[in-house]
Amino acid sequence: MHGESDDSRLVGAVADREDDAVEAALRPKSLAEFIGQHRVREQLDLVLKAARQREATADHILLSGAPGLGKTTLAMIVASEMAAPIRITSGPAIQHAGDLAAILSSLQEGEVLFLDEIHRMSRPAEEMLYMAMEDFRVDVIVGKGPGATAIPLELPPFTLVGATTRAGLLPPPLRDRFGFTAHMDFYESGDLEQVVHRSAGLLDVAVDPAGAAEIAGRSRGTPRIANRLLRRVRDYAQVRADGAVTSDIAAKALDVYEVDARGLDRLDRAVLSALLKLFGGGPVGLGTLSVAVGEERETVEEVAEPFLVREGLLARTPRGRIATPAAWTHLGLVPPQAQANGVQQAMFDE
């Protein structure tokens, strides 16, 4: 029993590393290869070209948007376009000012520091970052109590690329120190089809246009999800078909993996099903809804809800979560007339 558990953990870790390696291989290496985000790409191209012409480091860059839209990829592209090394860390990993000071003091001139989930950095480290970004200097505190002294430490010019999924949590003093800020939008189906075709070429998978469209349509406007679904469809086509991905094969494969035609997965449908069948369409509190589907409150709020709201299947109101008429239709149910009127009233109240 013990050995089986250890083996399963080992196999899982190997699988995770393989997935990470495949994901890294699919990342574009330059702005020219990057698909979608046309406005952001054009603006960023100007920023980087101007910096190269001046033979200076690029301004600090802030990228915001939902997970999976390419913030990490763009940070790596910034380093590649500037022919500079990149250092990668995250906000949760920097809990003390000393953690940040150690990273900053070891940077090379022109290096790109990518700080993911920057809004989760500790406040002392955040305050140290203000001076580092503006003056390329930090004050290192030596000693404790009345005898403590601040020793100024000069830093080489560097480019900070911050990424956040919740830009509203960034304090204005930090946000204002970025020379270029960009918000990344969800992808249109046409751009996602290009992503699928590009990734299929790198994975040596034959995908016809209809198959790419089927995968793109179920990818929730997110390239990371499109790539993940492509790999699962590839597995299905390899095992149960001739290896080629058509619309029919893609649909059958994604049905096996419980991703429906609109992109809803098991959790999304569980939330909607509980909301409709157990609570009559709402309104119901988030905590109660989370218990009903057997998931953590944060999981429902941060993973399922944003997509359901964006798809017009669920609404947040002061009285709780409610299902829209489209949710009833999607699950093949007929909303009570009283419920339909209640939805309209709750949305009006909001």
Strand order of the largest sheet: 2-3-6-1-7
Note the total helix count.
15
Structural class comes to alpha/beta
User: Percent helix among the residues?
Assistant: 40-55%
CATH-assigned fold name of the largest domain: Rossmann fold
Full CATH superfamily name of the largest domain: P-loop containing nucleotide triphosphate hydrolases
Distance between the termini: 54 Å
Which consecutive residue ranges, at least 5 long each, have pLDDT under 50? 8-15
Keywords:
350 residues; ATP binding; single chain; Rossmann fold; 3 domains; five-stranded parallel sheet; Holliday junction branch migration complex subunit RuvB; four-way junction DNA binding; Arc Repressor Mutant, subunit A; four-way junction helicase activity; 9 strands; Helicase, Ruva Protein, domain 3; alpha/beta; two-stranded antiparallel sheet; globular
Describe the protein in words.
- This protein has a five-stranded parallel β-sheet with strand order 2-3-6-1-7, with helices on one face.
- The protein starts with a helix and ends with a helix.
- The protein folds into three domains: 153 residues, P-loop containing nucleotide triphosphate hydrolases (Rossmann fold, 3-Layer(aba) Sandwich), CATH 3.40.50.300; 68 residues, Helicase, Ruva Protein, domain 3, CATH 1.10.8; 84 residues, Orthogonal Bundle (Arc Repressor Mutant, subunit A), CATH 1.10.10.10.
- Helix 11 crosses helix 12.
- It is built from 15 helices and nine strands.
- The protein has 350 residues and is an alpha/beta fold.
- The radius of gyration is 24 Å and the shape is globular.
- About 2% of the residues have low confidence.
